[in-house]
């Protein structure tokens, strides 16, 4: 995260717009999600001269924006913590508190459901 602080906000916004435009242009090419993601990262690193970590994070955000454009549900960051995500459905007015461990158990650690791209591996 501290790596992002070294880049001007307008640079990161420009990168995200470029990633979003790339994803929109190439989405219909019948690429798998992982291939589309990888090509978008390559585009940012080659054309926009972004480093790989920044490119991966930017493409992940752009992909999220692209796939959720018509969905008003969201995570309330101000109510969420490191171990609990608060998800909001504005249509029903319901807030859902979902533990991060449940997200890992049911979504990320389940190989047959795994459809997420690894954005950045944690370094310990």
Question: How would you summarize this macromolecular structure in one to three sentences?
Answer:
By secondary structure, the protein is mainly alpha-helical.
Structure description:
With 124 residues, this protein is mainly α. It folds into 2 domains: 2-67; 74-112, no CATH class. 47% of the residues lie in helices and 11% in strands. The protein has helices at residues 9-26, 33-47, 52-67, 100-108, and strands spanning 74-75, 84-89, 94-99. Strand 1 and strand 2 form a beta hairpin. Helix 1 packs across helix 2 and helix 1 (9-26) packs across helix 3. The longest helix has 18 residues, at 9-26. The protein is globular, with a radius of gyration of 16 Å.
Stretches where pLDDT is under 50 for at least 5 consecutive residues are 1-5
- Counted beta strands: 3
Give the helix level as a range of percent. Answer: 40-55%
Q: Proportion of β residues?
A: 5-15%
Number of separate helices? 4
The total number of structural domains is 2
SSE layout:
Blueprint: H1 9-26, H2 33-47, H3 52-67, E1 74-75, E2 84-89, E3 94-99, H4 100-108
Antiparallel strand pairs: 1-2, 2-3
Helix pairs in contact: 1-2, 1-3, 2-3
